[in-house]
Every structure is written in structure tokens, then in C-alpha cells.
Amino acid sequence: MATLDIVHLSKRFGSVTAVKDVGFTVNDSEFMCILGPSGCGKSTLLRMIAGFEELSAGDIQIDHESIAALPANKRPTAMVFQKYTLWPHMTVHDNIAFGLGLRQLSREVIERKVKESLALVGLSGYEARYPAQLSGGQQQRVALARAIVLEPKILLLDEPFSSLDAILRVRLREELKRIQRRLKITAIFVTHDQEEALSLADRIAVMSGGEIEQLDHPSTIYSNPQSLFVADFIGAMNLLKGVVQDGTVRVGEKQLAVPSGKVSNGEVTVALRPEDLVLVPDTQIGTVWKAKIDQVMDLGHYRKVLVDVPQLGDLKIFISKAVNLNEGETISLAPTRYLIYQNGNPPVEVNQQAQ
Predict the structure, then answer these.
(1) Exposure of 74 by Cβ count < 10 A (0-12 exposed, 13-18 middle, 19+ buried)?
(2) Is 86 strand, coil or helix?
(3) How far is CA 144 from the centre of its chain?
(4) Which partner from 3, 80, 86, 323 sits 20 to 30 angstroms from 253, CA to CA?
């Protein structure tokens, strides 16, 4: 169990700055996810923590002691990579035991720890197999066992499930969360998969262009994204251009309410989650958008519907499977909650009940 402090951390490759003055704290036993698109700097940040990349500026502290000057093999961290990086000529047992052997532990201790780690990842009895005899998911479990057997203070995971199929990814991340909770280990998980981050993390740091756009609990990031980048990156979102004037925002041919004094006159972007556009009767008063259904997609427990709204274009809505809609049909929609973004400021939230 340990805390991790990232202090004004930067990494430059020549004239390119990959990580820009990043700072945050990972609490004891916390599961932190670093989420962002390819090239945002998330893997570089993780590699600096592990000791595989030198720092250009800043500090890395575990339990308030700097580890920045320590080489990777001296740091109290262990890393699970996207590629399994198992030694093909070694058995599962020997792959896991290798790091313990370097610590010159007794054979009895090594055998006990290997057995315990394999049981933890659900691979008891696989000691004598070679990596080529394992499935991709089993190889990644061995890689995880090899990391946790070292009892690191900080467990680092760099997109470990990205090469696996969708069903196996879900199963392994559920098992990973169970293992992390059981061991009470502090963990940092890098991913570009928002669903993975939302399902695993105690907190999420969303990165873009080498900087952290927002760091918060998953529910807060989803419901109150603090920048347009986060709003567009996390979950499905409808982004609409609008103009504020005289206390309202005009979006297409309709006007939406604006909280008094919170938004200045001028151009804004209105962000609207698909679940916050609801079906209403044609007779409803207030803000109602007429929409023509383009596509209806059955996604199991709900339906995703693409609609065309005059002057607004294509919008996404989520509806219950109990509601039957057909392509080409015209429906009426009303927004119940939306966020207004202006000039890079934090968003203004508006809630309004369908009348």
C-alpha cells in the first residue's frame, strides 16, 4: 500500500513536449485510470513512473520520497505491458519466479509465492506450460501474476487488454478489479477505452496534448465534463452550435433557457447527452424539436436512434426497448438537461423538466 505523487512532471523529445507540467496524487489503494487518445502522452507518463523514460522536469514520489533518480529495477513498481512480454523458452512457473530469483529468495519462498499468484489470477495447475501453449487471455494473466508476485507498492498497467477480444476484455478487467481490491494495491491503468476507464477507475485523469484536461470520479467526468474535449471524448454527446442573446440561447430554430448572469452574449456550444433528449407528445408546450428517424439500432438493453432535426442536423438519442420506433417516422423531442460551453470556461448546467 502506498501513495504516489506526480509533481510538475514534463517530458520533452527534442522540440516536442509529450508531457506538460502534469501533477496529481494517487491515494493509497486507489485505482487510477489515465485516459486519452493515441499520442496524448499517457503511456509516456506511465513509462516515466516506471523508470523507462527519463524526466525532463519535475519529480515522482512514492510515500513522499523521490524515486526519480532510481533505475527501473530499483523502483517499488511493477508494470504489465500491452504485449505480454513473456519469455517463450520459460515455463509459466519460471516466468513468474524469475524476478523473485533475482532477489535471492529461498526456493521454498519462491514456490509459495508463485503458487499464490497463480491462484490469484485463476491459473493454478498451469505451472509447467509454456507461453505458446496458452491463449492470449491466459498469457496476460501470467504477465499480471509476474507483476503482483513482486509485491510492488505501485502496479502500473499500460493498455494490457487492448489486443484481446471484447468479451475477454470485460472478463479480465472485472478480475483485475477484484484482485486490486483484494490486495489493496495502488494501481495506475492507462487506456484509450472510455468504457474500460469508467468501469475500473476510482478516479480518471483525462489527457489531451500532454496535459490533464480533467481529473475526477467517473460519474462526475461523465455528467459534468469540464471542457469540450472531455465532453466529446467521454461517452456519446451531441454538440450543437448556438448563440446567446437576451437571456436565451438560440439553437437552430429553437430557444433554450440560460441561467441569469452565467453566460455572456455570443457564440456557445450546447452539449446534450443522448439520454437527455426525451420523447414527448406532439401537443407538449415549450422547447420541442421535430425529428425524422434515420436509423434505429438495437443494442440489447436499449436502442440507439439517429434522428435528423431541421437546422440542427443529425442527433443521437437513447430510448428504452419498450418503445417501438420505425425509420422514416417523425417524432417530438425535448431536452431535459444540457451544458453550455463558452470561451474555454467551465460549463453552465441547465436542467429543465419536460412540461
Answers:
(1) exposed
(2) coil
(3) 20
(4) 323
For position 353, what pLDDT does the model report? 62
Predicted TM-score (pTM) above 0.85: yes
pLDDT tens digits along 132-154: 999 988 999 999 999 999 999 99
pLDDT value at position 355?
39
Region of residue 64 (left: phi > 0; alpha: psi -120 to 50; beta: else): left
Cβ neighbours, 10 Å, residue 275? 15
Compute the distance between CA of residue 44 and CA of residue 215 in angstroms, rounded to an integer.
Answer: 18
Quickly count: other Cβ atoms within 10 Å of residue 274's Cβ: 18
DSSP string computed for 324-347: ---TT-EEEEEE-EEEEE-TTPPP
Phi-psi region of 300 (alpha: psi -120 to 50; beta: other; left: phi over 0): left
Rounded distance between C-alpha atoms, residue 212 and residue 49, angstroms = 16
Residue ranges of the chain with per-residue pLDDT less than 50: 354-355
Q: Is 8 helix (H, G, I), strand (E, B) or coil?
A: strand
Q: In what order do the strands lie in the sheet containing 330-335?
A: 277-279, 330-335, 289-298, 302-309, 313-320
How far is it, in rounded angstroms, from Cα 351 to Cα 221? 17
Closest-CA residue to 157 (of 131, 135, 190): 190
State how far the Cα of 188 lies from the Cα of 286, in Å rounded to an integer. Answer: 47
